[in-house]
Amino acid sequence: MISSKYRGFTLIELMIVVVVIGILAAVAMPAYQDFTIRARVSEGLLVASGAQLEVSVGSGTALDLVSTVSTWNARAGGKGALSKYVTSVLMNPAVGTASHGEITVTFSANAGPIDGRTLVLTPWIRAAAGPVPLGTSYATSTTGTLDWSCQSLTNNVSVARAMGGTSGTLPAKFSPSECR
User: Fold this and answer.
1) How many angstroms separate the CA atoms of 49 and 79, rounded?
2) Beta strands 118-127 and 130-133: pairing type?
């Protein structure tokens, strides 16, 4: 008598494999989408680093900062800087205010669900008495180290550091931890 060996999978085994793959895909897809959005936000911060460097170098006096802001904002057709996922990186030109020199990164439609959302970087002077916004530090002759706060829709980290600035519109779940 010849016995046949069992070879292959039964239908129920294949169905179980398909269900397991479906569950894994359902869990992995949202995490992957969040990851890609965070990567686009990181690109925005990288593009903004050029503006941060310009402020750190060109902010010795209030007039220097005015010149730096206007020169930066005139670049790239009035958008400061841009990339595939960033519509603009602009500095706030409001002279003598706490927001003077703030950098606003605006994300483009290519960035997906964060289209039109903003992330705001605010320059501060770390003085002995506490942080002072760069834009108002000139009036009080405050000196110290230049530091930055980053704000998304929530700005809990910057407020906890006593450096709260203008809130952005980017949801905190897509923001770097420093900007939440």
Assistant:
1) 15
2) antiparallel
Q: State how far the alpha carbon of 168 is from the alpha carbons of 122, 132, 146, 159, 177, in Å.
A: 11, 20, 21, 14, 14
Tell me if 4 is assigned to some domain: no
Please determine, for residue 139, whether its predicted confidence score (pLDDT) is greater than 80. yes
- For residue 156, report the phi and psi dihedrals to the nearest 5 degrees: -60, -40
User: Is 80 exceeded by the pLDDT of residue 3?
Assistant: no
Query: Measured on CA atoms in the order 128, 129, 133, 138, is the torsion positive or negative?
Result: negative
In terms of Cα–Cα distance, which of 55, 45, 164, 22 is closest to 107? Answer: 45
The structure's pTM equals 0.86
The DSSP output letter for 95 is T
Residue range of the domain that includes 131:
11-179
Q: Does residue 6 sit within a domain?
A: no
Is the pLDDT at 62 greater than 70, yes or no?
A: yes
Whichever domain contains 48, its CATH number is 3.30.700.10
Task: Give the Å distances, CA to CA, from 54 to 16, 36, 70, 124.
Answer: 58, 28, 11, 14
End-to-end CA distance of the chain: 74
Q: What is the mean pLDDT of residues 20-39?
A: 91
Strand 118-127 relative to strand 145-151: parallel, antiparallel, unpaired? antiparallel
Count of domains forming the chain: 1
> Does residue 3 fall inside a structural domain?
no
